[in-house]
Model the fold of this input.
Amino acid sequence: MEITMGSKRKGGQIVLNIIFVLLVVAAVAPFLLLLSSSLTDEATLVQSGYNFIPKKFSLGSYIYLLDSGEKIMRGYGITVFVTLVGTVLSVLFTIMFAYPLSRKELPFRYLVSFFVFFTMLFNGGLIPSYMMWTQMFHVKNTLWALIFPSLLMNGFYIIMMRSFFTASIPDALIEAARIDGCGEYGILFKIVLPLSKPMLATISLMVGLGYWNDWTNSLYYVTDEKLFSIQAILNTIITNIQFLTSGQSAAIQSSAASALPSVGIRMAIAVIGVIPVLCIYPFFQKYFVKGIVVGGVKG
Done:
């Protein structure tokens, strides 16, 4: 009987390992195909399609991007600054909003939580938002236009953080701190936050990814190219190439335009955009999984 049970467990473990290997392959294969396509000659890519091993190696897409090196480096700098500042402010505001909502003694906390949840279902729309940010807060053509709109406060993150505080921070621990004379800010920064590293890392990663991949704020609120984020610059490059190679006007058709790496450059742009995320994610992974699981518990 024990041998049978042991064999079943071993067989089940083998099946699970096979499933996990297949999932890893399914996750890694698109990145390998993306990298290979970005290193493939444009003509070969158009004729033969995508392959995991380049049939004809070429750095044409990256060379084309390097011709705009100064613009791209400036865009990288702006994106890094916006991502760091935006993530810090967003996480700070989320904490200051979510922690009071997690305390049972807060008056009208359910009403306030309802308003937070309401913002996850409805919003004022693009035009009212644009008028508010440009005419009331005057953020147009400033770096704040890349930080404040859309990404600074998110009801979903507030609910996640509140649920984590409610489920993971014992009330007895907070009461003991109050008996010892610790104030609310002391409780928050000395007790609650040190115990909330998984959720802080999770929300920081999610917010940071949002800022890093954002290009809509540049599209809506920024007309000065010197303030474009890297995503906005890369999106502009793609748009320009599509216009030059569309063939809508005979005046712009030329051998140079037809030779532009329109397919491969999309892959190179994706590689440039995703590499920093791949470098950072492993440091957050262990906190990310734990934070998602615990933060999903209903508070």
In short: DSSP finds 14 helices and no strands in the chain. The CA atoms of residues 160 and 296 lie 7 Å apart. Residues 249-258, 295-299 have pLDDT under 50 and may be disordered.
